[in-house]
Amino acid sequence: MKTSANLAQDYLSAVEREASALPADRRQELLADLAEHIEVTRAERPDAAISDILTELGDPRTIAETALSEAGSTTAGAWAPRGIGAPARRGKVHPLVPLLMLTLPFLVAAILPQAPAAQFFSTVFRIIGAVLLCTSVHWTAVQKATGVLLTAVLPTVAISIWILSSSAPSGGTPAHLANLATIALLTGTATWLWRIRRA
Predict the structure, then answer these.
(1) Tens of pLDDT, residues 15-35
(2) What does each C-alpha distance from 130 to 10, 17, 21, 69, 141 come to in angstroms?
């Protein structure tokens, strides 16, 4: 059976493996911060199981991904494990802004299909929303890529195929159903992004 020290060492080794792309000094700093946090938490809560403490710290891969994503945009020492001292990075744009820009313009364009200005501004605002999502600090790179794919790329491709296809059903009802399906996709994706955002 593994001791507490072995479990902690295995955890730190996993973080080190996952963060191998970090510069050596940043990686060692990250590991030192984690080791210190583990020791402080064990001293403050001697009855807590080491596995619970490690679970609270988070998955080694997630910690490494966070450190890697912040490596180029924070000063040395700005990263800290979840729940300790260093303040979280704050984005300049509220996370709700890109989500609204990716969803509401499509709704307006669907309500006003005969207004060219609505279509134009819908496209512009959705592009801006995608850019803001991609540059936000509130999501990981995978989450951003998934968000852009589901809220910008997929609907645009589907609409383009619909417009250019001679086999698309004619009449208002199929178009309304397609718009409702697209709005449901955009709303669902925006809700998912809002729930998983980082502070």
Answers:
(1) 899 888 888 888 888 888 888
(2) 39, 32, 27, 19, 13
The single-letter code of the amino acid at 125 is F
Q: Give the residue among 35, 51, 48 at the shortest CA–CA distance from 1.
A: 51
The values of phi and psi at residue 40, to 5°, are: -65, -45
Question: In Å, what is the CA distance from 93 to each residue of 71, 98, 133?
Answer: 20, 8, 10
Give the C-alpha separation, 14 to 172, whole Å: 56
Record the pTM.
0.50
Measured CA to CA, the distance from residue 129 to residue 68 in angstroms comes to 24
Question: What's the rounded Cα separation, in Å, for the pair 7 and 9?
Answer: 5
List, in order, residues 6 or more apart from 130 with CB less than 8 Å away: 98, 102, 148, 151, 152
